[in-house]
Design brief:
By secondary structure, the chain is mostly helical. The protein contains five helices and eight strands, in the order E-E-H-H-E-E-E-E-E-E-H-H-H. InterPro entries: Palmitoyltrfase_DHHC, PFA4/ZDH16/20/ERF2-like.
């Protein structure tokens, strides 16, 4: 929280009257990333539901009884709820400098040199604020622009971003453990052998016992995808810490 004179609480959402700079170049950048961000957000949502359904209805029943399935069902639902909830909160909570009041946008006496002027927005920015060309806004304590949330990560929504990474890491980590055990029951696992996966794919298309090979191939493929979607948020979470 910034301190301008006395401690003033920042407003979480931007004021309706605040307007972007309408820079043509920035509008082009924002338009070019709109589809990418929609796709990225859709991937997060779809993968969350996919791994929940896959593990709850295919993987877990082969390992546990009724109690274990029920427990993991509630646990998985709680994790998915928190992933989607924090994703929504992160996207809807803005950290725009323009959302501050006139008093908050006045540098304290003696600290004027720590503030900077944003030419596109034509306003003074508090320390650690940066202009985002994609959002076309100045962002308080801007960390980065995240395509998977469709917004800038800044002062007001950084906590939601951390929780999003946390629940994604926990959810995909648990799924990875169970999927690894489940995949072991269907043959050897070669995590760094793309040739093996390619040959398995060819056998799926051309070999005998096609249905069983297809099943094995997709089980291995899901494990690979699970490993990737675990590493990405986990690495980002560690970096944020």
């Amino acid at each position: 929280m910034y301190f301008v004179g006395n401690s003033i609480k920042l407003r979480a959402m931007a004021c309706p009257e605040s307007q972007p700079s309408h820079n043509p170049e920035n509008r082009l950048i924002k338009a070019s990333t709109a589809y990418l961000e929609s796709l990225a957000i859709s991937v997060v949502v779809l993968l969350s539901f996919f791994f929940f359904i896959y593990d709850m209805y295919i993987v877990i029943p082969t390992m546990m009884g009724t109690f274990g399935q029920t427990f993991h069902g509630f646990l998985g639902a709680w994790i998915v709820f928190n992933i989607l909830g924090n994703l929504w909160a992160c996207n809807r909570t803005k950290s725009w400098v323009a959302s501050l009041s006139a008093e908050e946008l006045t540098p304290p006496k003696g600290e004027e040199y720590t503030w900077s002027h944003c030419e596109p927005c034509n306003l003074l920015m508090p320390p650690r604020s940066w202009h985002c060309k994609i959002c076309d806004r100045c962002v308080l304590k801007r960390d980065h622009h995240c395509n998977f949330t469709g917004c800038c990560i800044g002062h007001n929504n950084h906590r939601y971003f951390i929780w999003l990474l946390f629940y994604m890491s926990v959810g995909t980590g648990l799924a990875l453990v169970y999927n690894f055990i489940y995949t072991l029951s269907h043959g050897r696992i070669t995590l760094v052998d793309p040739i093996f996966m390619y040959m398995l794919f060819l056998e799926t298309l051309l070999g005998h016992g096609q249905e069983e090979l297809q099943r094995k191939y997709f089980i291995f493929l899901i494990l690979y995808v699970n490993a990737m979607v675990f590493v990405l948020p986990a690495a980002k979470l560690v970096y944020q810490m």
